[in-house]
Automatic annotation (TrEMBL):
Pfam family of the protein (one): GntR
Keywords recorded for this protein, A-Z: DNA-binding, Transcription, Transcription regulation
Molecular-function GO terms, alphabetical: DNA binding; DNA-binding transcription factor activity
CDD domains reported for this sequence: WHTH_GntR (cd07377)
PANTHER family: TRANSCRIPTIONAL REGULATOR, GNTR FAMILY, UXU OPERON TRANSCRIPTIONAL REGULATOR
Organism in which the protein naturally occurs: Kocuria rosea subsp. polaris
Protein name according to UniProt: GntR family transcriptional regulator
Gene3D superfamilies in the record: GntR ligand-binding domain-like, Winged helix-like DNA-binding domain superfamily/Winged helix DNA-binding domain
Amino acid sequence: MAGPNRIDRVERPRLYEQVVERLLDHVIQDRLETGDRLPPERDLADSLGVSRATVAQALVALEVLGVIDVQHGSGAVLRYRPSSAVVLRGLREHADRLPDIVDARSAVETKIAALAAARRTPEDLSAIEHALALMAQDIAGGGRGLEGDELFHAAVTAAAHSSVLARMMTEISGLVRETRIESLSQQGRPERSLESHRTIVDAIRDREPERAARAMAEHIELVSDVAVLRPE
């Protein structure tokens, strides 16, 4: 006789997921259209009775999924109106694949950093330092340094002069963007990431492959510590 069917445990939605649902309800009820702005973070926290940190995490989740666009000084702007079910499924898929993205970055980008230290040209180094300066300027102005961060990793990849590794990074670029937004939205993370980048640049400038690989591995470990993977 067959045994009883297994009943899966009920998963309780995390608080930021509940906030995401409320925000999507607001979009529908207020008939917001593409290009419309969501209320300020502080107002949302007061209305929903949650902390600003929880609202911020919900907004980051929506940004990762492409539902909103967040610009420093401009707030959150709606990009499109998805259903709650689609977004919540996307959030869980995002959380599930984050560890795999981290593993891929750790394996590929540490090798890229080592090769960059061994093969970089003066022009490569200038491009890396330019990206670093852009990131520093954005962060100094209150931004997250997203564009500079992306340019930095692209410049390091180019300096490795490996078409295969460059193609691999292109293949996972969309997934890496998810971790970039998630990470650089953490409190104090842009500044720490910038310092980590400087350590990588120093090793590449000094042509020390092992040191560059180690610095990149430590950087990936730093930026992989994101709220969505922490237990509540």
